[in-house]
Design a protein that fits this description.
alpha/beta, 8-stranded parallel beta barrel, binds flavin mononucleotide
């Protein structure tokens, strides 16, 4: 697969996954789902290691992914209307550093298609649905896009992630700050209360943030998350920094950097958040997990759950079981 263009190999793998699942092949090749149950955000997770958003944007491979040992799967980012994303090529592998640079730009088939894909899945486990805004929706109207997706996915999700941290939608990251953030969180919380009544089920909302904030900015974000009683925070998305990949092929491509080079940055964000939040809401740690040790490190820094994207591309399901085992060992 590594001989193919990264986006092509990605799509081939994703499309083959459900077929392999239907044929029972994953059970032979995939990872055993290790049990290490935990309750977070009021949800029972079979283990603490999940698939991060962006790999299965349209929810076409949930059955296959759930057979890779993950305790939970997050699909999306999905937007109200379908959109193409940025021109290709837009994913670059930097294997020397187990890293990826991407500038996909929320390519996805839209929230209605995501829901009809999920209807076809057999998966009954914990499902996160990650929502965003369309590129051509001006930031002043961003709240409408998030609310639209929230209403659409509420009945199907175990939890919902609000992505305000992709670097590839111009202006999106400004929603992480000040009045824009507060107005978004306020709108989401009041809609969540209405939806909880309507569906007779409370679906937690987590906010996904970038690793590129100063400590002062993080303190303000943590205060907003607490004051609006958000249910969780996912830290972190990809970084704009190129620290650790300088001089490598593709290092100067525009987009977000993920994989091993973002590991320390995101762990540092988790530590600062853990300190500021003081248990008020749980942290889901993501960024640069490529060894079991890295997953355990995120838990030690204050995360309750972890997620993996780039490490899974480089190491496959073995990394998932390694991560669950390393986290289990912390408790021993
Ligand atoms: C190709 C690619 C696409 C991604 N797309 C999304 C996305 O749509 N939504 C999102 O919240 N995060 C997205 N991410 C970010 C990941 O979910 C994760 O936060 C980040 O890559 C750091 O974790 P990692 O080092 O394990 O990859 C994407 C990452 C990659 C590499």
């Amino acid at each position: 697969m590594f001989q193919l263009d990264p986006e092509l190999s990605h799509n081939v793998a994703l499309h083959s996954m459900n077929l392999a699942s239907a044929l029972g092949v994953n059970k032979l090749l995939g990872a055993e789902k290790l049990s290490d149950p935990v309750q977070v955000m009021g949800i029972n997770f079979p283990n603490r290691v999940g698939l991060a958003a962006g790999l299965d944007k349209n929810g076409i491979a949930v059955d296959g992914m759930s057979e890779m040992g993950f305790g939970f799967v997050e699909v999306g980012t999905v937007t109200p209307r379908p959109q193409d994303g940025n021109p290709k090529p837009r994913i670059f592998r930097l294997p020397e550093q187990r890293a990826i640079i991407n500038r996909m730009g929320f390519n996805n088939d839209g929230v209605d298609t995501l829901l009809s894909n999920l209807d076809k899945s057999r998966y009954k486990g914990v499902l996160g649905i990650n929502i965003g805004k369309n590129k051509d929706t001006p930031n002043e109207n961003a709240n409408d896009d998030y609310l639209y997706c929230l209403r659409k996915v509420y009945g199907r999700a175990s939890y919902i992630t609000v992505n305000v941290s992709s670097p590839n939608t111009p202006g999106l990251r400004t929603l992480q700050y000040g009045e824009s953030l507060n107005s978004l969180l306020d709108a989401l919380k009041s809609e969540q209360a209405k939806l909880a009544k309507f569906h007779d089920r409370y679906v937690p909302i987590a906010v996904k943030i970038a690793p590129d904030m100063t400590d002062e900015e993080l303190v303000l974000v943590a205060a907003s998350l607490k004051s609006y009683e958000m249910d969780g925070v996912i830290a972190t998305n990809t970084t704009l920094s190129r620290e650790g990949v300088e001089g490598l092929e593709y290092a100067d491509e525009a987009g977000g950097l993920s994989g091993a080079p973002v590991r320390n940055k995101s762990t540092k964000v988790i530590r600062t958040l853990a300190n500021e939040l003081d248990g008020a809401l749980p942290i889901i740690g993501v960024g640069g997990i490529t060894e079991g040790f890295d997953a355990a490190e995120k838990i030690e820094a204050g995360a309750s759950l972890v997620q993996i994207y780039s490490g899974f591309i480089y190491r496959g399901p073995q990394l998932v079981t390694d991560s669950v085992r390393a986290i289990q060992q912390l408790a021993e």
